[in-house]
Hints:
The structure holds two protein chains of two kinds.
Chain A: H1 10-45, H2 47-55, E1 59-64, E2 71-72, E3 78-90, H3 98-108, H4 113-125, E4 132-138, H5 140-148, E5 156-165, H6 173-176, E6 179-181, H7 184-189, E7 200-202, H8 205-209, H9 211-215, E8 219-225, E9 231-238, E10 245-248, H10 252-261, E11 267-272, E12 279-285, H11 291-294, H12 299-307, H13 316-319, H14 329-339, E13 348-350, E14 353-354, E15 363-364, E16 372-374, H15 376-381, H16 385-406, H17 428-435, H18 441-447, H19 458-469, E17 473-474, E18 480-484, E19 491-494, E20 500-501, H20 509-523, H21 530-533, E21 541-547, E22 570-577, E23 584-590, H22 596-620
Helix pairs in contact in A: 10-22, 14-16, 14-20, 16-18
Chain B: H1 6-9, H2 14-34, H3 39-60, H4 64-88, E1 90-92, E2 95-100, E3 105-106, H5 108-127, H6 133-152, H7 156-172, H8 177-197, H9 200-210, H10 219-233, H11 244-247, H12 259-292, H13 296-320, H14 339-356
Antiparallel strand pairs in B: 1-2, 2-3
Helix pairs in contact in B: 2-3, 2-12, 3-14, 4-5, 4-6, 5-6, 5-7, 5-13, 5-14, 6-7, 7-13, 10-12, 12-13, 12-14, 13-14
Amino acid sequence: MPPRLxxxxxxxEYNLVRRRVLFAAVVMVLLGxxxxxxxxxxxVIQHEHFTTLSQHNRVKIAPISPMRGLIFSRxxxxxxxxxxxxxxxxxxxxIEGLDQTLVELRRLIAIGDADVTRFRELLKKKRRFEGxxxxxxxxxxxxxxxxxxxxxxxxxxxxxxxxxxxxxxxNLAHIIGYVGMIDERDVETLDKSNYSGTAHIGKLGxxxxxxxxxHGKVGYQQVEVNAQGRVIRVLDRSPPTPGKNISxxxxxxLQNLAVQALEGRRGAIVAIDPRDxxxxxxxxxxxxxxxxxxxxxxxxxxxxxxxxxxxxxxxRVLQGKYPPGSTIKPFLALAGLQSGVRHSAxxxxxxxxxxxKGSEHRxxxxxxxxxxRMAMRQAIAQSCDVYxxxxxxxxxxxxxxDALRHFGFGLPTGIDIGGEAAGMVPSRDWKRKVFEQPWYPxxxxxxxxxxxxxxxxPMQLAAATATMAGRGWRAAPHLFLSARDPINNETVGEAExxxxxxxxxxxxxxxxxxxxxxxxxxxxxxxxARRIGQxxxxxxAGKTGTAQVIGVxxxxxxxxxxxxxxxxxxxxxxxxxxxxxPRIAVAIIVENGGxxxxxxxxxxxxxxxxxxxxxxxxxxx
Amino acid sequence: xxxxxxxxxxxxDVPLLIGLVILCSMGLVILYSASGQGTDIVWRQGIRMFxxxxxxxxxAQVPPATLARWSIGVYALGILLLVVVLLFGDVxxxxxxxxxxxxxxxxxxxxxxxxxxxxLAWLISEGGVPPRFGRVxxxxxxxxxxxxxxxxxxxxxxxxxxxxxGFSVLFVAGLSLRAIMGFAVVAGAAMPVLWHFLHxxxxxxxxxxxxxQQDPLGSGYHIIQSQIAIGSGGLYGKGWLNGTQxxxxxxxxxxxxFIFAVFCEEFGLMGALLLISVYAFVIGRGLYISVKSQxxxxxxxxxxxxxxxxxxxxxxxxxxxxxxxxxxxxxxLVSHGGTxxxxxxxxxxxxxxIHTHRRFLAE
Lengths: 621, 363
């Protein structure tokens, strides 16, 4: 082995280092002696003094946890509350005969076997003189019963705590999220001193994203304790700073209505105000009851949620990835106009299928007999597939990829509660990297009708629709509206939506062209969603979509009744209204709901009617 | 060829290993009491220690020549990881220290405690001791760069230890006393500048030391309670599990930074002297091994590790007994926690490697 550790002048080097080490050793010994002297001073000379101090040590400093901020909707409905709840706590060090006490307590109030099991578990982890909860959520009657007999049970206390409570439960579970007990992983990352009196921390959704605002700052009190460590009186107090109250952009009545609309189904609804990106409603169905998680969910309930076929714990709005189907068409149409590949009047002949040159494979239109001659406006209104196969073919994958990216597909939308999937806009490079295969022209075609590799989250669809409504202007979707100080009700923080021009076209008339076509979808005589346009006192621009879950063979027909439900098509609908000055943009997905026009579009009408109706009433009142 | 014992073949220095095992065992015993008889926490810490000794054995297998050769590369990697932490690290306790690799979370700043003395030992041993002016300057840069990045996270305790590790190598290498004085003057002059770059909470901490009454749960209270714990322990202590200061929760940070106070309360002066003697033995053995090393790299690196270990102990014990301001430095091998445990034992593993691979020059 080549010795890199060459010896320059071994003897001299050795001596120098040895001298220095000796020197260091002397210093270390001196410092060590100083330390020993100090400990000797404390433990021997001052021993009596400190023994007295320790015996009279009666003043302890205890943290006071701050009150967690409340969460409200835009219109002031309370969404997350702190409710007093009574729990029964036992301090084993002060109890003689724990088992006997348990037996007697069970005679007094209802205590299940599960409660006792959990109690025994907690008992192992607790510190000395720390109360261990046996029962949560005592009723007033139970509190009274225990209090009456308290003299019989030293070491048993009824403790009042504030518990997080979500009055609207499952309706907002995917927005608010929930708080849960602080666990080991949280402890690693949180500010220990500020959380010294806190048992709960935001685990999901708004509760997690705005934890810092909601939590507040810990306070302290000096307390006098007796020899057993029980608090006798409070000497001094520096109060905690409560967390900030937060208002969200949500419209609760719209949210509730959207939840109702998806009752018993799987799907997602998002409603955004295109002017500032504020989220008005956001539903992922089925939901779950966030209150279950606050004091720790029991294993059986958790398993039930995990095993439920509707996957209620998955936030479909942010993590559900769906083929956008025909809802992609208006965006491609705009790309066609902007790139000059299409003029609005250019017509395409639709015989009911399309084939690439030199290929036998027929790409079918949803309408068997074909649509005939189609210009852009009719092609969008009637959702002609052949028109868009042709357009996609002429645009090519690069231009499609770029156009969709500009509308925010394939990228996180930047929503303020995080946790979102990026979706997928395929490209040549991506396919080469992932599959090591070239891009085939047929894949461009099906991308034209929103099928194939393309995947979008409902939030992306809603954000893209809002961008269409804003004619290229877009603000990141957000839930946070403002934060207030609960003491003086002063506003301490406000959302600052920043609008950005994301999609630029050379001729502003291109927007009119596409938006008019979307208006035809709902108000035109042959529009795919004409039923929802009927009798609407405002104008709706929309687009239906039906996304295939399974491929249908060349010579097969799709018959919904013959296919198991979970393989049926997803129904989609995007819309914004009113067309002249858009105030709301929605995206709706009903999983395995069949066609967009039949199951998704009617929901939009219900929501829009309510939204504008409520606004009308508001201004009238 | 001399007959090699099992310990030699495993590259283990038995006296040093025994010392370390005794320290860890004492740590577990006192942790059981400090945690309020938490069997869970002791069990987990025991498993961590077991794993850390495994890592020590691995580290002992690497020949010092290899360490020297790789030191600059490992150093560069460490700096890179520190940059990554500053850019993407997990924010823990208001500071960015952690790197989450999915299966494991670790602190790159921690590994610099070993890497900085290693790279300096290599740099200086290449040029011969005492180091010439150029190498001293280069060494300073190699020390200051990671120290600033760690202080920026912010983690003053670790930054201090890394700086100590580096300068102890320079010191042992025979840096002239005039240069050392120069450093002291420069450091003093840099204080106001440094103040300007401190985070708010760090400034707060310094101010707190100057005026302990400011924070009810702050250093002042810690120090008073900790001294009561030590003092009331007396000559023989209150007995295991009988410390009132800790069990009635007057003493903060009982199982981590202030565990020495619990130890003194329950085992008294005799216990404290025993613990200090074991530390002294480990340090003495470490210095002996380092000096006996056959090459300058081993000597410098070994001394760097041992002196840092000493700084750990003296700062922690000094803080707990009220002689040094409160800095977040745990009592090595005894305090509860995993990260510093691994770094320390890796350091000692390398020290054993320096000793047990010592024949490689002769072969």
